[in-house]
Design a protein that fits this description.
Layout lengths: L1 E2 L2 E2 L5 E5 L6 E6 L3 H20 L2 H17 L1 H12 L3 H22 L6 E2 L10 E9 L2 E5 L7 H12 L3 E5 L6 H12 L7 E3 L4 H10 L5 E5 L2 H11 L3 E5 L5 E4 L5 H12 L12 E5 L3 H13 L19 H16 L3 E4 L3 E2 L2 E2 L2 E4 L6 H4 L6 E7 L2 H8 L7 E5 L3 H10 L4 E4 L19 E2 L4 H7 L1 E9 L3
Parallel strand pairs: 7-8, 7-10, 8-9, 10-11, 12-13, 12-19, 13-18, 17-18, 19-20
Antiparallel strand pairs: 1-2, 3-4, 5-6, 6-22, 11-21, 14-17, 15-16
Pfam families: Aldedh
Protein name: Aldehyde dehydrogenase
Organism: Candidatus Methylomirabilis lanthanidiphila
Length: about 475
């Protein structure tokens, strides 16, 4: 791991396992509180260095890093597949997105600016001239999840560096290799030695020390709602961005093109074995087209090939851990015991859970209420647009939602009334362009990602006022 300007090792190690077969891919150091202290001491110095680095130089570093990632894209893709388990095609796509995220972040490094303030429009403001400055926060702690071990790290590190901060990365314990390789790339691209640290270890052992330390001014976290709440409680007076859980709904109105809907649900419900925050989970379907939709969806889901994610034909690989696949099966069986039915899927082999469709799911079932984070979608009937919107909002989460309709009035009601930060019309909720403002409502978190918006979250605003003689 990279701490205080050096690559270091520890006696205690953590094995990185291949989710498909359980083989040891690599081993990484297990950081402790002493390593956290060294990282933060170094980051204090690094923050001063980064703040003095001109925006154009930060741009050049991030641009060079993007080019290096692109040049080594196949190496990165194989690392992602080996440590995370997603198909090689999905890993390659993630790498291409990471290149865009770093490139966009670099561009934002050139655009940090303030604005003039019209004091003469206020009583007593005559003779005053004001403007704002955006300055770095200082030290940013970036805590990333396992499911996008490269691109979601880039979404935190890229804007943090573009804004002139030092950043301390805490990658997911299951998938640290991509973040370590990215750190290596950034240093090769010319990043100052103390501008970054990458600590590998267990969140329970080092997370509290990172998040509660007063030297840290900004925390950016992607992960579960419960861990997010814990971080917020211990953070104290800090700037915090929280990208938390979801159980994203899709509304299918009676005028929808069911073939298009079925293709979209198959594409957005099972990517990365359903381990995506904005994955389609609840499919709210008009009573008028309920049976026809299930008939259209079933063959598309059954066509999704499971297996070794390194095989070219595999569409759905394993979940990150076998116990997660077991949990998905328990939730499905729990729904079936309460009156739901499995249309297709429902079988497990090790960490692979077959792409599954569960019909007749009721709003009080856990499959409807909670975040599944697995390769199953729950289909529920509704009678009217009012009921559909009420069902969509019947959750503590609000990250993403989708609707399929050709009716402009229904589409606008959905946009205005559904409580989610990302709203997709005529596609499923799992869609993200890396330049867009991305974030949730309610207990899906607060703050926005997307380099332009994240840079604002990772800077502080200062006001300057000249009191002139005339």
């Amino acid at each position: 791991m990279y701490v205080a300007g050096q690559w270091i090792d520890t006696e205690k190690k953590i094995d990185v396992l291949n989710p498909y077969d359980g083989a040891v891919v690599d081993a990484v150091p297990c950081a402790d509180s002493g390593d956290v202290e060294k990282a933060l001491e170094s980051a204090v110095r690094g923050a001063r260095t980064m703040a003095k680095l001109p925006g154009y130089d930060r741009y050049r570093i991030l641009k060079a890093a993007a080019e290096l990632v692109e040049a080594r894209s196949e190496e990165f893709a194989e690392i992602i597949t080996l440590e995370e388990g997603k198909s090689l095609a999905e890993s390659r796509f993630e790498v291409s997105r990471a290149v865009q995220t770093l490139t966009l972040s670099g561009e934002e490094a050139k655009r940090l600016h303030g604005e003039t303030v019209p004091f003469d429009g206020a009583p007593g403001g005559s003779g005053k001239f004001g403007f704002t400055l955006r300055v770095p926060c200082g030290i940013v702690v970036a805590i990333s999840p396992f499911n996008f071990p490269l691109n979601l790290v880039c979404h935190k590190v890229g804007p943090a560096l573009a804004a002139g901060n030092a950043v301390v990365i805490k990658p997911a314990t299951d998938t640290p290799l991509s973040a370590l390789k990215l750190t290596e790339i950034l240093l090769e691209a010319g990043l100052p030695a103390e501008g970054i640290a990458c600590l590998t270890g267990r969140g329970a052992e080092i997370g509290d020390a990172l998040c509660s330390d007063r030297r840290v001014r900004k925390i950016t976290f992607t992960g579960s709602r419960d861990i997010g709440e814990r971080i917020c409680r211990m953070a104290g007076i800090k700037k915090v961005t929280m990208e938390l859980g979801s159980n994203a709904p899709v509304i299918i109105m009676p005028d929808a093109d069911l073939e298009k809907v079925a293709a979209a649900v198959a594409a957005t419900g099972y990517t990365n074995a359903g381990q995506v925050c904005i994955s389609t989970q609840r499919v709210l379907t008009s009573e008028k087209v309920y049976g026809d939709f299930l008939d259209a969806l079933k063959p598309k889901v059954e066509a999704l090939v499971t297996g070794n994610p390194l095989d070219v034909g595999t569409k759905v690989g394993p979940m990150i851990r076998e116990r997660d696949a077991i949990r998905v099966g328990e939730w499905v069986q729990e729904a079936v015991a309460s009156g739901a039915r499995v249309v297709t899927g429902g079988a497990r082999q090790g960490a692979i859970y077959a792409p599954t469709v569960v019909a007749d799911v009721k709003p009080d079932m856990r499959l409807f209420c909670d975040e599944l984070f697995g390769p199953a979608v729950a289909v529920t009937r509704f009678d009217s647009i009012d009921e559909a919107i009420a069902l969509a909002n019947d959750t503590i989460y609000g990250l993403a939602a989708g609707i399929f309709t050709e009716n402009l009035e229904w589409a606008m009601r959905f946009a205005r009334e559904v409580e989610a930060g990302n709203l997709m019309i005529n596609w499923g909720p799992q869609w993200r362009a890396d330049l867009m403002p991305y974030g949730g409502l309610k207990e899906s978190g607060f703050g926005k990602e997307g380099p332009r918006y994240a840079v604002e979250e990772m800077t502080e605003l200062k006001l300057v006022c000249f009191h002139l003689k005339s």
